[in-house]
Amino acid sequence: MNERLAEACALATEAVGGQADNWDRAGVIPVDLVRGLGAKGLLCAEVPVEYGGLGFSSVDNGEFTAHVGSLCSSLRSLMTSQGMAAWTLQRLGGRQHREAFLPRLTSGELAAVAFSEPEAGSDLSAMTTTITPDGDELVLDGRKVWITAAAYADLLVVFGQHQDGAAAVVVPADAPGVRIERMPDPLGCRAAGHAEVVLDSVRVPADHMLPSAGQPVALLVTTALAYGRMSVAWGCTGILRACLAATAQHARTRRQFGRPLFEHQLVMRHLAELVVAEQTAARACEYASRCWDEGSPEVVTATVLAKHIGATNATRGAATAVQVLASAGAVDGHVVARAYRDAKLMEIIEGSSEICQLILAQGALTTW
Questions:
Q1: Cβ neighbour number for residue 265 with a 10 Å cutoff
Q2: Where are the beta strands (DSSP E) in the chain?
Q3: In this predicted model, what pLDDT tens digit does every residue of 85-143 receive, in sequence order?
Q4: How far apart are CA 327 and CA 316, in angstroms?
Q5: Is residue 179 a contact partner of residue 198, using CB atoms and an 8 Å limit?
Q6: Is residue 325 exposed (0-12), middle (13-18) or buried (19+ Cβ within 10 Å)?
Q7: What angle do CA 29, 32, 33 make, to 5 degrees?
Q8: φ, ψ for residue 83 (rounded to 5)?
Q9: pLDDT of amino acid 164
């Protein structure tokens, strides 16, 4: 681990400081703490140094994301949201958008990316949010649901229908007509600020639209989702590491039938399965990030594969951890109980497991 990555991990460890359970129970992370991390460039560490970021490679940012994921999946979710907003601005925005907004994301302002709608989840082509030009302004109308980090956001990157295609627009969260309502009692990542966003004749300057407007919705969304999938994949590796640490510690210290738990072969099988799950997820993530850093044409498939492996392994691994810890891990407040809830959401967000399987299968038909 290089010095800058080690420093970032140490800062995250200090910031969380054993508070993840309290945040999870309260459903909120202190916003000043989140802004403080953002002002250090830690929420979107891949942003180039010229815009105030840390300029991390995908591999380094991935390891950092896994570390945060092992501490608190809600905080990691905020990182995913911030990083995805920054990536969207870098890939779909013009120079003026990068200069105007990226420094804000590395100086303490927070962002969310709004895709999903009540009738547009996996099928984002069904989104009905409209972006309508009106002179030197744009008018946005629509309703977005389950938007991660929206409850904390200063800026929203909103995707919607625009003329014959789609567009992405940067919308101040406090603009007239924007209403943000927290989603009550989410299953997992309870402090990640999931919210419904209602846009009622919201007006923003026309130059807040990213210049990729008019492209098919699938193309625009896939570009933005790529970062989210990579971040979730690494975050799931972190979940597995937290489960592995808790399970190994329990197996060493718990005694049943007069001997340590690790001397029971079936328990050791569970521990071995956790090792395999963590290592498989980590290797898939490392390969995907290398493809990302090298600009490999395999990056799309590799990223989807990493997300699918990470999410499914984290869900099964967390269940295994709860099984080994039994009643000790089956109470709200334990790290593996929180992991069990958080991991399940990872099989749904940024492309469900079924969507990932379809993409991978379609790629196989093309390749083989």
A1: 7
A2: 111-114, 130-134, 137-147, 155-162, 165-172, 178-182, 195-205, 255-256, 259-260
A3: 999 999 999 999 999 999 999 999 999 999 999 988 788 788 999 999 999 999 999 99
A4: 18
A5: yes
A6: buried
A7: 60
A8: -65, -35
A9: 84
Tokens of residue 357, six digits: 């399987």
Residue 255 has pLDDT above 80, yes or no: no
Distance of CA 225 to the CA centre of its chain: 10
Q: How far is CA 293 from CA 54, 57, 92, 298, 303, in A?
A: 15, 6, 18, 11, 12
- End-to-end alpha carbon distance in the chain: 38
Number of Cβ within 10 Å of residue 14's Cβ equals: 8
Would you say 237 and 285 are in contact if contact means Cβ atoms under 8 Å apart?
yes
Nearest to 344 by CA among 231, 247, 225, 236: 236
Asked if 14 and 6 count as a contact pair (C-beta separation under 8 A), the reply is no
- What residues pair up with 195 in beta bridges, in sequence order? 147, 182
Tokens of 17: 């400081």
User: And the tokens for 83?
Assistant: 């990083």
Q: What global pTM score does this model have?
A: 0.95
Taking alpha carbons only, the member of 107, 116, 126, 115 closest to residue 157 is: 115
